[in-house]
Amino acid sequence: MAKVVLAYSGGLDTSIIIPWLKDNYGYEVIACCADLGQGEELDPVKEKAIKSGASKIYIEDLREEFVKDFIFPVLKSGAIYERKYLLGTSFARPLIAKKLVEIAEKEGAVAISHGATGKGNDQVRFELTVKALNPDLKIIAPWREWEIRSREDAIDYAAAHGIEVPVSKEKIYSRDRNIWHISHEGGDLEDPANEPKNEMYVLTVPPEEAPDKPAYVEVGFEKGIPVSLDGKPYQAVDLLTELNRLGGENGVGIVTMVENRLVGMKSRGVYETPGGTILYRAHEELERLTLDRRTLQFKEMVALKYGELVYDGNWFSKLKYALDAFIEETQKTVTGNVKVKLYKGSCDAVAATSPYSLYNEELATFSEDEIYSQKDAEGFINLFGLPLKVQALLDRKINDK
Predict the structure, then answer these.
(1) CATH code for the part of the protein at 177-353
(2) What is the set of active-site residues?
(3) Which residue of 15, 199, 260, 397 is most buried, as measured by CB atoms within 10 A?
(4) What does pTM read for this prediction?
């Protein structure tokens, strides 16, 4: 019997895909569940996959690889999709697909399957990774083939096949969670006129319910990578876990947005990224202190393209590799400490120090100094403004005729 490796989460879609693959393709289904920090969501996964008809399940602890090789590179890039989204689902999919390919090769499988819909971005992210790493593998995307057209239909299918799923027609949010964030889509969120309900949040308390006293945390970086909190060294996974706790307690990292999907439509969702928001603010402030103006400005342009590449699923593309090399060069001096203030949803970098700081107090002061002569500014302005002066003289000459 031919084998197919399924990206399995234990959620609604992937649960019903197991019997569907067996009924429609006659394949032996091997489930693969990537532990990216979903927490208690993974507890029932093994038993559930087997009960649903899988012959075997791999549960892979990828948290450290996820943080070090996927989260931190994006953090160093400064990429934010459409100025709001910190890409938590986007950079998780290439890692999951990479593991699917590895297991398919190990098991001698002929195909890979996923539960992404034909309207979403994830189908692209999964499949571009598979094409980049093993183009010989067949890809099966049930949402592009079966007669199920809604989450209500999927719930009915699960009930008909005796499969328990963690949603109902009353509680129908589609969620994706990992150590970086949790996303919420569907249900009442699909109407942009509806404000998200406070009871929806999982990682974060509503800002208005956060403590009345601000909290502070000092994040230490080495070459752009966060390595300590309040002077204490942390391993990558533990550091992000602690920042999630601290940020969540103070209502930090909630984003509601309408975004442009790669496939051409707009979608609306809510993201909770408490620890990631703290890291972005701290890293951004440290770069302001340690990068020169031209490098910082060019890096901002790179971040825009980098975010687009990640969002679109081009993690294993040549252009991304090239941008990674540029970003690594910029991070050589991004070392130091940043104090961040958290208060009822706000997250502000309030102090920063670095041995590579380009801030010179003697130059910046309004007091008299020996390094900078203010008289020199006159010549600079004359040269800098020369094109404007020449244009004005030409305009006057033309107008006088």
Answers:
(1) 3.90.1260.10
(2) 13, 93, 122, 174
(3) 15
(4) 0.93
Indicate the angle between helix axes 386-400 and 376-384, nearest 10 degrees.
Answer: 50
* CATH of span 3-76+86-171: 3.40.50.620
pLDDT tens, 22-67? 999 999 999 999 999 998 778 889 998 999 999 999 999 999 999 9
- 207-231 confidence digits (pLDDT tens): 999 999 999 999 999 999 999 999 9
Which residues make up the CATH 3.90.1260.10 domain(s) of the chain?
A: 177-353
Q: Is 341 exposed, middle or buried (0-12, 13-18, 19+ CB in 10 A)?
A: middle
Give the pLDDT score at 168. Answer: 59
- Mean pLDDT, rounded, for 268-275: 98
Burial 8-46, CB ≥16 within 10 A → b, else e: bbbbbbbbbbbbbbbeebebbbbbbbbbbbbeebbeebb
pLDDT value at position 39? 80
CB 253 within 8 A of CB 204: yes
Q: What is the 3-state secondary structure (H, E, C) of the chain?
A: CCEEEEECCCCHHHHHHHHHHHHHHCCEEEEEEEECCCHHHHCCHHHHHHHCCCCEEEEEECHHHHHHHHHHHHHHHCCCECCCECCCCCCHHHHHHHHHHHHHHHHCCCEEECCCCCCCCHHHHHHHHHHHHCCCCEEECHHHCCCCCCHHHHHHHHHHCCCCCCCCCCCCCEEEECCCCEEEECHHHHCCCCCCCHHHCCCCCCHHHCCCCCEEEEEEEECCEEEEECCEECCHHHHHHHHHHHHHHCCCCEEEEEEECCCCCEEEEEEECHHHHHHHHHHHHHHHHHCCHHHHHHHHHHHHHHHHHHHCCCCCCHHHHHHHHHHHHHHHHCCEEEEEEEECCEEEEEEEECCCCCCCHHHHCCCCCCCCCCCHHHHHHHHHCHHHHHHHHHHHHHHHC
Q: Where in the chain is the domain with CATH 3.40.50.620?
A: 3-76+86-171
**What does the CA dihedral 257, 288, 322, 261 come to, rounded to 10 degrees?**
10
